Amino acid sequence: MGKFALIPIVLVLSGCAMFSEPEPQKTALSDGYGLAPTREINHLSQRLVNDLVKQNDSLKSTQPLIVTTPVMLRDLQKTNTLGLQLQQGMIAALHSHQFNLVDINVAEVVKVTSKGDLLLSRDWQDLPRDLPVEFALVSTMDLTRTGMVVNARIVNVTNNRVISATQTAIVQQELKAYLTQSEKVVSSDGLLYRYEDRGMDQVQVVGEEL
Question: Global pTM?
Answer without folding.
Answer: 0.74
